[in-house]
Amino acid sequence: MRKSLELRNRADVKRKAGSAILAVIDKENRDFTAQERSDIDTINSEIDTLLADANRHERMENAEAGRSRNPDVPNMGLDEAEDDDPKSGKPVFRTLGHELQAVYTKTTGKLCGGLNSVEEAHNMLQASISGASEAFDSDGGHLVQRDLSATIEAGMREAGQILALCNPIDVQGNGLVERYINETSRATGSRSGAIQTYWVGEGGDITSSKVKFDKRSTDLGKLAGAAYITEELMNDASAITGIYNEAFVEDLTFMAEDAIIEGDGGADKPLGIIAHAGTVSVAKETGQDAASVVNENISNMWVRLLTRSKSKAVWLINGELGPQLDKLSIIAGTAALEPRFVTYGPDGALRIKGRPVIEVEYCSALGTVGDIILADFGGYRLVRKGGINQASSMHVRFLNDEQTFRVTYRLGGQPKNKTAITPFKGTATRSYFVTLATRS
Q1: Beta bridge partners of 217
Q2: CA-to-CA distance for 129 and 106, rounded, in angstroms?
């Protein structure tokens, strides 16, 4: 392996360590601790040093390679477009932009991005193949290198407000069929699917019990998107990588998270929280104004959340709900006090009952079911297959001199609990997910 690639890999390990620290802070919606600040500063310094050293080695490695350049195109050819994979030793593309440039050159015969020949583009594409016998499919499409596709999925978890809270399961088939414990009540004799335990005196008999299992099937749907890349843009690998990765990260994240919240479970889409039979919907108060939120709504939603979920839950709100929360007050004689359970931290972050509030576009319109949701996403089963798949083709828009870039993502999901759960003491059912009924 070239020394420059080794240094970049070490820098990536450092970056992942830093990202793990940031993920914890974001999830807990808090500021850095003194130790975390020190750790992040150290990591950033080490990354800067490693990347600077990698650049130094890379310049020398390229100079020693002595590869010929085409003087009529920018100095962005093979040396800068590819590295050696540490496992296979084969050349791999560094960025999405470099790979799409090679596809463009191979298909049209026009030199692009510093490539010296069509043959060079072809050899690079053939050398980068992983797990396939041909670089191009029957429609002239080229599968994008797997590790480059993975950057979109990683970006989705970083950019999203909900995906990062879910724990996905990867499958090989077209869905997930699983046996699960059907717990509908916390009463003795019903917990954990009718497991029964007893206080037994010496010599006493133990009555056997049988766990009740149900079978659940989560089917995979397919998210797909396409974009076109013009000939003018094709010469700028950095712009291609930045523009299209960012665009697909944003829209795939939006579609996936929206389905988790309000998907109807039909047409190969995930089943969302709002439509699920096991989600608890809290009734409005008698005489409550339309499109309003009152203290009793918040308290009643909180009590209907599963006890074990209260330390992990978040509140999701439509942004238009914010002013309603700011108006909440507790009448104290002739005065009014701010409710103790709705607070803003020094960073301006809102919390209700001590749990973070996240404003999302997917929540329903103000005054309707789903405009405010109390959720523990540990109770949502997210199933995926194969990660992000990308492909590019010159054939679809050949006459327009544009390259088609396609992305697909196999994803499915549904809440874990089949129904709401009756508590050990009391009658009001509870769930991982709680909504507020329409106020009209």
Answers
A1: 177
A2: 15
Q: Maximum distance among all alpha carbons in the chain? A: 94
Residue ranges covered by each domain of the chain: 3-138, 139-440
| Closest-CA residue to 87 (of 142, 47, 146) | 146
Query: What token pair was written down for 417?
Result: 């609990």
HSE of 387, CA atoms in CB hemisphere, 13 A: 14
Distance CA 152, CA 128 (A): 19
Distance from C-alpha of 140 to C-alpha of 131, rounded to nearest angstrom: 18
Which class does domain 139-440 fall in? alpha beta
Residue 204, class by beta-carbon neighbours within 10 Å (0-12 exposed, 13-18 middle, 19+ buried)? exposed
The 3-state DSSP class for residue 5 equals helix
Nearest alpha carbon to residue 28 among 299, 322, 349:
349
Give the pLDDT confidence of 238-286 residue by residue, as tens digits: 677 777 777 788 888 999 999 999 999 887 789 999 999 999 999 999 9
Residue 140 in tokens: 């002239």
pTM, to two decimals: 0.64
| CA–CA distance, 223 with 157 (Å, rounded to integer) | 16
